[in-house]
Design goal:
alpha/beta; 6-stranded mixed sheet; 4 helices; about 35% helix
């Protein structure tokens, strides 16, 4: 399953996309917008263009797990997108969404024909820090602040998405049909 990830901010939203198999994430783009967040039509266009079936939205919780004004803004974006896609908004276990947010739609997909979307909130604590750590060394030659900030937003979305993908990866029990070998390389199966 291919996933799109949003890292919503006050003026920009970083976007990342997963591989078609949903195993790795790459930065995609940055959406510029007003304080209300990205327009649902912008997100829908990206979902259709990249054939994404799921949408992960980064939830910027405080280090102690509490909600901040940024958390509330991200939740409002998530609810608006869930309503646009007529999708159920899924949240991590134990997360209590404030009661005074509008309820998302029932989840029939009727508002966006041909596009059934699964929408999940994902804890994004430290994602911007990790993205900055990853991009600073590699992009030290580039001194244009605005360009680095845009790159950072998309990389932060990729960090969030990779965290989500890793947490939902199937557990592998090794190679199918492989025999155990002893330290000297002898086959112990026979």
């Amino acid at each position: 399953m291919r996933w799109l990830c949003l890292d919503p901010g006050a003026k920009r939203t970083g976007v990342a996309i997963s591989s078609p198999e949903g195993t790795f994430a790459v930065p995609l783009t940055v959406l510029e917008h007003d304080a209300g967040g990205p327009l649902p039509e912008m997100v829908e266009r990206l979902m259709r263009e990249h054939r994404a079936e799921g949408l992960v939205i980064g939830l910027p919780l405080s280090m102690d797990g509490s909600m901040s004004s940024q958390t509330r803004a991200a939740l409002e974006v998530a609810v608006r997108l869930a309503s646009h896609f007529d999708a159920v908004l899924e949240s991590p276990p134990g997360l209590l969404i404030p009661a005074n947010l509008p309820e998302p739609a029932a989840g029939s997909g009727a508002l966006t024909p041909g596009l059934m979307v699964r929408i999940l909130l994902w804890d994004e604590r430290l994602s911007s820090w990790e993205a900055q750590r990853m991009t600073t060394a590699r992009d030290a030659a580039s001194r244009k602040k605005a360009g680095r900030e845009l790159l950072l937003d998309a990389h932060a979305a990729a960090v969030i998405l990779q965290s989500f993908l890793d947490a939902h990866a199937p557990v592998s029990s090794g190679l199918d049909g492989a025999h155990d070998q002893t330290a000297d390389g002898a086959d112990s199966a026979g």
